[in-house]
Design brief:
Elements lengths: L17 E4 L4 E4 L4 E6 L7 E3 L8 E6 L5 E6 L6 E6 L4 E8 L7 E12 L2 E8 L10 E6 L2 E6 L2 E6 L5 E2 L5 E7 L4 E9 L9 H15 L9 H13 L30 E2 H14 L3 H17 L6 E2 L10 E2 L11 E2 L10 H15 L5 H17 L16 H17 L3 H21 L20 H5 L9 H13 E2 L2 E2 L15 E2 H13 L3 H12 L11 E3 L4 E3 L5 H15 L3
Antiparallel strand pairs: 1-2, 2-3, 3-4, 3-5, 5-10, 6-7, 7-8, 8-9, 9-16, 10-15, 11-12, 12-13, 13-16, 14-15, 17-18, 19-20, 21-22, 23-24, 24-25
Helix pairs in contact: 2-13, 3-4, 3-5, 3-13, 4-5, 4-6, 5-6, 5-7, 7-8, 11-12, 11-13, 12-13
Amino acid sequence: MDDAAPAPPPPWTLREYAVLADGERGAVVGPRGEAVWLCAPRWHSDAVFSALIGGAGEYTVGPADDWNAWGGAYEDGTLIHVGRWITSDAVVECREALAMPATPDRLVLLRRVRAVRGSARLRLRLDARPGFGAQPMSGAWTDDGVWHASGGGLHLRFTGAAGATPTPEGGLYGELTVREGAEHDLVLEISERPCTRPLEPERLWRATEECWAGAVPACSDLVAQRDARHAYAVLRGLTSDSGGMVAAATTSLPERAGARRDYDYRFAWIRDQCYAGLAVAAHGPHPLLDTAVGYLTERLLDKGDALCPVYTVTGAEVPGARSLPLRGYPGGSDRIGNRAGAQFQLDTHGELLQLYAAAARFDRLTPDARRAVDVAVDAIERRWLTPDAGLWELEDRWWTHSRLCVVAGLRCLARELPGRAAARWDTLADAMLGETRRRCLAPEGHWIRAEDDTGAEAGLLLPLARGALPAGDPSGPRTRRFIEDRLAEDGYLYRFRHGETPLGETEGAFLLCGFMMALAARHEGDTTSAFRWFERTRAACGAPGLFAEEYDVGQRQLRGNLPQAFVHAQMLETAASLGERR
């Protein structure tokens, strides 16, 4: 190994990054082999690698030859990523994953380098910095070629780099060579307790492969089979053993440069997890359906009508937003925490009822979940006339989407659980639909955003697709046309207009909404339009196949945090819907 430590890499456009995840945390990896984001030990913990948002800390394993072309892909139905580089005289692959099964207090990041052709000369840099870069590791020492260090309440162990050189800042750097046809394992462990378990790469890889094989079902009956399995893998990778699913692995990645539209998504949103559970249920009674029902039922029974829209994966309250002393991703900031934790969002109760109805359809409604149904309905009866923050977490208003979402949930529940309670649910749905129609149906026959806003709202497509309206109600097709006329551009869909600003100037197209449009078209029997929207929207992913929240149509770039769980969920649900035979 040499004695020249390479400088940390500058950031890439978001479409180039891959994400490794094991359910408890996620690592963002760039095309040159640099892990630039990782929170430890859990999703909402402080980052130990925060170069993605301008902090210190990274873990790079990549070609020493700067003249190289890169590529890579996920192994089917997993978040095991294989990076690939072609240099002047070699072809090199690096297989990488967060080891599974995972535990909340300990992460293991696996990397296996293989020299496909020629000898591979690789550059290595490991610089773990707990506290978003504020606390370097210290006391680095080696025991029989295994490196140890500690700092910020964490313990580090690193195997496979016996000849590395420690830096004054507590990191390691150097080079290693892998002969043609050979493999070399690097294993990084970070834990809240001193690291004592054996680090056996072959065993760790085998266990990880077995976990993924058992977690992701075959999707041969769906359209876009590979993408559907990948979506399922993303949802599984973002779901903790506690049951909570984070919205994304990252924080502060901007939706628009300099617009201060950058948020922390390392938490579990009630709505997003309902979307994921419903997407899975659209395909079958797979484990993530039960996981979603269990986690959300615990929150609902604990909080009742004081249910927050978002929690940590452990069920704790989400801290308010604050800034860090970091540069942020270019065009973004360094924000952690989220103000949405203090909002009231009526639509989440409707999504919960739809999820419970889906569970009942497969006879997966537990006694606790059945009690939670009554809690949700009671909360709706008390609060449905109250303004709420709505789907997009804006100011409190009488949002149409929130009411129609609840109507859809009540209708679904009444169909799946017929009986005396069903009559109550139908009566409540009738009252809500009647009042919402009085306030929010335009004279032209389409639904508007809110009682005091006559604009188009793409979010309305989802409750329309899920049965909020009676069969044959003309306001559904009219609303879909109204939304498409005003919010579509080049085959992509925006969520709403920001005043008189042209589409695309304030934010990107919302990929969630494109899949909503496909579902709405499918619900109306317009299969051709459904496929067109589905195919156009699913093309807006990065090179590794990950979706962010938004898509810059003009620049063809991803915007916002990634991987965005609800986009992958909606893609999976649409693939299941389009795969159904009629």
